[in-house]
Amino acid sequence: MAVTPLASLQDVVNDIGRPLTPDEVTRATVMLEKASELFRREAQQHFTEGESHVQQLVGSCGTVKLAERPVLEVHEVTADRAGAPPLRFDRFKQELTVHGVRAGERVRVRYSHGGDVPDLVRLRVAEIVRKVLGISKKATEGVTQYSTTTGPMTDAETYASWAQGGQTMLAPDDAKLARSYRSKRRGAIVTSAS
Fold first, then answer.
1. Of 176, 182, 166, 162, nearest to 31 (Cα)?
2. What pLDDT is attached to residue 14?
3. How high is the pLDDT of residue 187?
4. Taking the CA of residue 1 as centre, how many other CA atoms within 13 Å lie in the half-sphere pointing to its CB?
5. How far apart (Å, rounded) are the C-alpha atoms in residues 125 and 178?
6. Virtual torsion, Cα 155, 160, 162, 165, nearest 10 deg
7. What is the 3-state secondary structure (H, E, C) of the chain?
8. Cβ(87)–Cβ(79) below 8 Å
């Protein structure tokens, strides 16, 4: 399955402030895909357009809150049992009021979601790639600290734990931002998403 990056190579160029070398273009393309998927996983949001199939526990007053934002269309809601007919529902943004079920029952929901990637997400993913491209070669080799002494002068460097090994990963602030996009919901099990 192809990964839709949450940022573009041009976003990375804008963040770095110069054109990328051919080697950097190749590396950045892969990093954009990985950083995007890591950000999605931490955020529990796809951000781009897709379709999800979820089992959802019906809350009080027959309500169900869908996780992905924005909800574009709800295609079908059925009781969570084989051969169950579609249920009637009313939708307000990402919340459904399902008719014909009681609180505590499970329903299956198939819906489309996503749209334009928020600017803050797009810019942060580009920044993650810029940071990885700029990691010192010493840190990519796994070095945690490095120092050079010439006469009375000492030059010392300490590398952040996320930089060691040069792998694409979320720094603590990146993960915190991603988690801020999580939807507050209970009782949902995503069975598939595209």
1. 166
2. 97
3. 46
4. 8
5. 10
6. 30
7. CCCCCCCCHHHHHHHHCCCCCHHHHHHHHHHHHHHHHHHHHHHCCCCCCEEEEEEEECCHHHEEECCCCCEEEEEEEEECCCCCCECCEEEECCEEEECCCCCCCEEEEEEEECCCCCHHHHHHHHHHHHHHHCCCHHHHCCCCEEEEEECCEEEEEECCCCCHHHCCCCCHHHHHHHHCCCCCCCCEEEEEEC
8. yes
As a whole number, mean pLDDT of residues 99-109 equals 90
Higher pLDDT pick, 26 / 137? 26
What's the mean pLDDT when you consider all of the chain? 85
31, exposed or middle or buried, with CB in 10 Å at 0-12, 13-18, 19+? Answer: buried
- Does 56 score more than 60 pLDDT? yes
| Angle between helix 172-179 and helix 22-43 axes, rounded to 10 deg | 50
| Residue 161 pLDDT greater than 70, yes or no | no
Distance CA 25, CA 36 (A): 16
Question: In percent, how much of the chain has pLDDT > 70?
Answer: 80
For a pLDDT cut of 90, what percent of the chain falls above it?
60
pLDDT at 152 over 70: yes
Residue 80, C-beta contacts closer than 8 angstroms, at least 6 positions apart: 55, 105, 106, 107, 108
